[in-house]
Design a protein that fits this description.
Blueprint (H helix, E strand, L loop, with lengths): L1 E5 L15 E2 L2 E2 H10 L4 E6 L11 E4 L7 H12 L2 E5 L7 H11 L4 E5 L5 E8 L4 H10 L4 H7 L2 E4 L19 H8 L2
Parallel strand pairs: 1-4, 1-6, 4-5, 7-9
Antiparallel strand pairs: 2-3, 6-8, 7-8
Length: 188
């Protein structure tokens, strides 16, 4: 399975490159890469600039149609790799075991992501089949970069957190967007 770690964000809300934030002897990005490489053979970084994070030893998937945020990363991954599991690099609690379970739960569907009890979706921790490539391309060309729109239009399996069993925890999909998120994470 191809794991694609989305590392192309601009970190505007953090005020600096959040993926380079130190976590002990490594960075946030290095931690996520290391965690997923321990469980999966094919781990890639999705980037707009192939030189970004050059010190992180991982294969790259470079945006083909840049400027559409995570949708550019998904588009490039599907076109270059086929079926992929996406994980945002700023999800420090995301685990490869939970990723594997989401993939298993997908069955024959085109995509599989978690739907939280309040109805929110986290498209940046989910499984996507290559059959979604035309939808991604059409969305980018139309200027509608919302991945949730693609998921609602596709044959998507929306799973409840309890379907992940003991792999679920409230923090699994918690991302680090603001300086206070990072400081709180350091204290856990």
């Amino acid at each position: 399975m191809n794991i694609v770690i989305l590392a192309g964000g601009k970190s505007r809300r953090m005020g600096r490159d959040k993926l380079s934030l130190p976590l002990g002897a490594s960075t946030l990005l290095e931690r996520v890469v290391t965690r997923f490489e321990a469980e999966f053979d094919n781990v890639y970084l999705s980037v707009a600039d192939p030189e970004k994070y050059a010190d992180v030893p991982a294969h790259r998937v470079v945006d083909v149609l840049p400027g559409a945020g995570p949708l550019s990363g998904l588009h490039a991954a599907l076109s270059q790799l086929g079926d992929v599991f996406l994980v945002a690099a700023d999800l420090p609690y995301a685990t490869p075991q939970a990723a594997r379970r989401v993939i298993e739960l997908c069955g024959e569907k085109e995509a599989c992501i978690v739907m939280l009890p309040d109805g929110r979706l986290e498209p940046l921790f989910g499984f996507y089949r290559k059959t979604l490539l035309p939808r991604c391309e059409a969305a980018i060309h139309s200027g509608d970069y919302r991945m949730t729109e693609i998921l609602h239009a596709a044959d998507t399996r929306f799973i409840a957190p309890e379907e992940l069993g003991d792999l679920w925890c409230e923090k699994l999909l918690l991302n680090l967007n603001y300086p206070e998120d990072y400081l709180e994470f350091l204290q856990t």
